[in-house]
Write a structure and sequence with these properties.
The chain has about 160 residues and is α+β, with helices and mostly antiparallel strands. The protein has one domain: 2-Layer Sandwich (Alpha-Beta Plaits). Helix content is about 25%, strand content about 25%. It has helices at about 15-30, 65-80, 125-135, 145-150; strands spanning about 5-10, 35-40, 40-45, 55-65, 95-105, 110, 115, 160. The strands form two sheets. Strands 1, 2, 3, 4, 5 and 8 form a six-stranded antiparallel β-sheet that branches. A two-stranded antiparallel ribbon has the order 6-7. The longest helix has 14 residues, at about 65-80.
Amino acid sequence: MPHRVYIGIGSNLGDRKANTHEAVDRVSKLPGTRVVRASSLYESEPLGDAKTWFVNSVIEIETEFVADDLLKKLKAIEKAMGRKRVKGKRWGSRIIDLDILFCDHEIVEKRSLKIPHPELHKRRFVLLPLAELAPHVVHPQLGQSVSALLATLKDEKRVTLLPRS
């Protein structure tokens, strides 16, 4: 039975929109995986050490992969697209970032993987595109819908909808 997964996508290096579209295309080509829907693209103020603004979106997929295996596939896509991880730098610039936000209604607490994504409820750049696709999905730990989380969000970082191109 396929798993329903929401993946956050971010890019702030190079052609950010093209990177985002390429990542979606690569995810769609994973065996046993289908992109159901993609959110609009949003431009967001950077976090941490990153200097340039991000383009963010969320995709909803159906996949035969369990969460651990999907994470490995997403990391391989990041690496193939040129992402370089810097030890000790969590919020630096990146050509592409792929994060599992939700996987079915699973709660996963491993060193290498946490689902739901532990920061998603604190970030406007995640909740806006996620609410576009899944406003009624309930966070399995917080017991609130995505739209309720967005409505009570305290994040002051600027996020703007980009025009469709």
